[in-house]
Amino acid sequence: MTSSDAPAPLDWTDVDKRAVDTIRALAMDAVEKSGNGHPGTAMSLAPAAYLLFQRLMRYDPADPDWVARDRFVLSAGHTSLTLYIQLFFAGLLDLEDLKHFRKWGSRTPGHPEHGHTAGVETTTGPLGQGLGNAVGMAMAARRERGLLDPDAPAGTSPFDHRIFTIVSDGDIEEGISHEVSSLAGHQKLGNLIALYDENKISIEDDTTIALSENVAERYEAYGWHVQTVEWKRTDEYVEDVQALYGAYEKAIAETDRPSLIVLRTIIAWPAPHAQNTGKAHGAALGGDEVAATKRILGFDPDKTFVVEDEVLDHVRKLRERGGQAHRDWTTTFSAWRTKNPERAQLLDRMRERRLPEGWTDRIPTFEAGKAVATRKASGAVISALAPVLPELWGGSADLAESNNSTPDGEPSFIPPEYATKEFAGDWYGRVLHFGIREHGMGAILNGIALHGGTRPYGATFLVFSDYMRPSVRLAALMQLPVIYVWTHDSIGLGEDGPTHQPIEHLAALRAIPGLDVVRPGDANETAAAWQFALSRPESPKGFALSRQNLPTFDRSEGSGFAPASEVGRGGYVLIDAPGDAVPDVILIATGSEVQMAVAARELLAEEGVAARVVSMPCVEWFDAQDQSYRDTVLPPTVRARVCVEAGIAQPWYRFAGDAGRIVSIEHFGASADYQTLFEEFGFTAGTVAQAARESLAAVRG
Amino acid sequence: MTSSDAPAPLDWTDVDKRAVDTIRALAMDAVEKSGNGHPGTAMSLAPAAYLLFQRLMRYDPADPDWVARDRFVLSAGHTSLTLYIQLFFAGLLDLEDLKHFRKWGSRTPGHPEHGHTAGVETTTGPLGQGLGNAVGMAMAARRERGLLDPDAPAGTSPFDHRIFTIVSDGDIEEGISHEVSSLAGHQKLGNLIALYDENKISIEDDTTIALSENVAERYEAYGWHVQTVEWKRTDEYVEDVQALYGAYEKAIAETDRPSLIVLRTIIAWPAPHAQNTGKAHGAALGGDEVAATKRILGFDPDKTFVVEDEVLDHVRKLRERGGQAHRDWTTTFSAWRTKNPERAQLLDRMRERRLPEGWTDRIPTFEAGKAVATRKASGAVISALAPVLPELWGGSADLAESNNSTPDGEPSFIPPEYATKEFAGDWYGRVLHFGIREHGMGAILNGIALHGGTRPYGATFLVFSDYMRPSVRLAALMQLPVIYVWTHDSIGLGEDGPTHQPIEHLAALRAIPGLDVVRPGDANETAAAWQFALSRPESPKGFALSRQNLPTFDRSEGSGFAPASEVGRGGYVLIDAPGDAVPDVILIATGSEVQMAVAARELLAEEGVAARVVSMPCVEWFDAQDQSYRDTVLPPTVRARVCVEAGIAQPWYRFAGDAGRIVSIEHFGASADYQTLFEEFGFTAGTVAQAARESLAAVRG
């Protein structure tokens, strides 16, 4: 079987129906035992989730990482039981796990957590993110196909597979759903099938209070294939599984557009009182209501967590079917391997996130003395690496030229009919055009990384990291190998003014646990930082890069300047006090302010003050060093210190210490040329030197 | 004239045409002189902006704050010249201002800045925000009408006015446009008219590379009234001003739905080479192209900043027309004042942002010893103040019950047909239902505050402040009187797990210049913080409130605890060392961790260690105190310190100092009951006491 075969006609027996009702009973029991959670949607979505896992998806529970599996993304993460119960049916979770729902240390936390529970493809809960991940996965699947098996006719490649997602009213309301759905339609992602569970209930109860758009028409405007399945009818509720299955069949057959199936459900059906209420959305139903519902479903109201043997045997057959599908697939896959030895090597390498031999040879070095913006250095690295790292791809949220994020000569990933005179298009291309959709970009990058194999990056101005912040947080939570190229990283942006000048962003991004924020001090630090970042795929990295030119330090032997390869240490002695004397004062700087520290060192030397300059491109990498290294760079005995960064001081107090001074900006910027701004806002060698004098005075008391 | 009268038929003379071409020449000259900027859209939008300011809007340049003026929001803030040149025509800016475009200290910064340039209704640039502001203004206009003149027939009230906005392709792409447009359709904002400048060019050039949705159909799906005006036709460009004017006439006549006019333009028309290019979007055209364009327009290519007398006389007549309209309006307004003396008092009070006599009498106090979540205390304050502060209104992004953001017994602001069994609806109601649209909520709150008069608040979980962060930043930049009610402010949220538990958010929000972040330590601090926040409308405030119950401290005389009114100091001695001894150590805490500091003080007392507890609900308010007060609370001589907050340590290093310790959480949370989480993650009286011992040891060296 290949993924593109039409599914077999639906054979729906009493055992299937009993299994679906078992889902409802388990969902009620799990929430009741936990005391909190979201039972209602898990009840009403029971048949849909069951259809997906038991009938529609290519899925082998024995290998949840099967490269060719269909992906399932539960964008409506609050109904985590919808997924957990299917994973239990698949044998990936035990009944005990369901009994420990939302408890400390359990495999069934309140929202699905990728990396924590096998079979969970992504962490969801913050609404809209999962839909964005699904769009990213669908794009990654196409890119993967293009890298590994571009010539196989549609539906014949072992890499063909689909992305299924379930979205809720809340996902539909969030702005990110607009960004990623518009882009999915534009990209003609025929491998993406979304089920919209339109139950019209959210926490404030009836969504009529806030939602009256026509969602089906909206998605048609995006170029999606849209179907509606009405289970809730004027005077009755008909859980027409055949109709839903038929809609899925059509969605699967539709390969030129993403598909949306609008499924009109009643939340918590058939609970007699709780159905169709906000309470059923987010709270336990209570013992009486659970009992009443169990009676309706033909379950013993006095028993909990009941899974009849016949049901369990039936649903666990998924393992046989999935195993058989996997074995059948292996034949096709092996034939592909034999025929494509080089591509097979690429696949193996990508799956292990291993970079090719000699890849670092390509990384450019920049001539000392030249003035180069770090964004430009970054662009040069991307272009240099593109030929040897086909897994590296990405693009910008409509700022490609400003972000220097486009590798030279590479085609865009775009249906060819949307190519423009600026950008050549290729269905399997490499350069991503997100449009002015930073948040969608963030969620899509996560989806690409989650899909596996390729390594994505995305670019915008640093100030607009705010627009994508919820997705960046999830990348950090999941520790995904995503790279952000954030340029125009300070008031150095200049004339566009305070709306475009990051002030608080370096602090705010460093605040996110698990995100490495990298602000290189010159072109060669930028190149070395790219190398270090790519070689460590275990977490997301965000580059903060200058718009304006920065001097490229002469790091040759005898120059006194350390090699840029020290960047991986996070912080290092860029140039020590003159004559390698014990420093009187340490000047710590990042990015475009490193040059000011270097110049201040000269000013201070004229006064007989011995100043060491520490470049600190990445606080997180520095923190990862052992104490002895850190004490070598920042000896605790040297208490006179100055930190300088064109952002707020908040992250620097711990390095400055009681006697230190921080040269920072604690207010918004202004519209003017950047030289004026640095001068007016006190970022000069002179202010750094003066701060050093003050710190020295404080130490001397 | 009232705002609802149909505009007079368009009388379009050669002088009008010349004035429009003058706009194009000025736009080119200003960008050329600046060396950078966005000329193209200012050129192609020249007739549209001219129509709005010179013909369609109720606008009196002599009084840019006229309460009944139509508002103009340039959501496409990059084309700031579109606005500046109209303000020049209106006499609010001089030609000199245009010559200093994007220069230090000028009134014409790169993007329009509210509060900096008279006549700029809002700060724009970050895309989508202006559209959200416009929706908020349209809602505020309705609420104002309801408060001041609810019974006047449509179109007869002196408070009837309209909100006009211009949006670009980029606004349309941003997710926030979806949130606010869906809500605007739902709210049937007939007083909102948006012009979508579909020029199909953005920074990556032809938007075809990233945008193919059918925008008109999308907006119809939102319930908007949509018209399309095609100036760009297959083989020619016809700047049909009459057609645009006719569309505006229809949009004005449409009072039941917001209106979108899709205007298909060619950017930078009629520049011979630059038109329809990405370069014309964001860069100076260059001398040759400017000269060529001026020749086409019939201007002397060797002259710059030319405004012929005839043109200037003609456009400055706007002042006479606006003044006459203002005087005519005053008749109606005075009649209203006479007839509505109490409402007139309310209007005066609202315009001055003055609160009524005795309003603080309503603020509840909470009984000592009771366990109360600060979110619940906040809800009690909102309910208590609602009757005396009609200007205070707001709501939640679908978390009303969790956020405790709904005042008792108040109707929802909603077309009555959308009322639900949970929420009574009133066209002029008070409770806002944003749906799951946090970002839209943020921009709408800004729009409400900008409109003037009323005082808005918006609520969601603290973790989802990330979703609205770009709007929060703009509230801080503009110093708007917006209040955020962010509840579930730590791992104390419990079972929903790491996706819902803020860790870095307090630090990240404190990082925003000009935003006051307030995390009260008990119910009475919450009430006092609301009082303080409302009495200071000069900046936005964000409350971080607990989900879980907190003890209410006994602050009675002799209790040793300071009164909650000290909250306004930002940080204060909650309870001093036993016997008012000189403290050995200071324990600084916020929110739900204050109780741990208080308990640790007891533990330490048993060991003979004298500990002072400082509650620090708002770092920004503490920083605003004079040095002597701050030194009283935190004597520099007492170097043993512990800071405790269930978030990252980053903001606390500066208070802890070299010898201090910080009890913090530097990683993401987990799904479990909150008691387990506080215990497992080290937030207990015991860990605070132990940190105090360590700090004391460090001081003793």
Automatic annotation (TrEMBL), chains A, B:
GO molecular function, one term: transketolase activity
Domain Transketolase-like pyrimidine-binding: 372-552
Protein name: Transketolase
GO biological process: pentose-phosphate shunt
EC number assigned by the record: 2.2.1.1
Record lineage: Bacteria, Bacillati, Actinomycetota, Actinomycetes, Propionibacteriales
Highest taxon in the source lineage: Bacteria
Region Disordered, residue ranges: 106-127
One Pfam family of this chain: Transketolase_N
Binding residues annotated for thiamine diphosphate, in chain numbering: H78, G125, P126, L127, G170, N199, H281, F464
Residues given in the record as Mg(2+) binding sites: D169, N199, I201
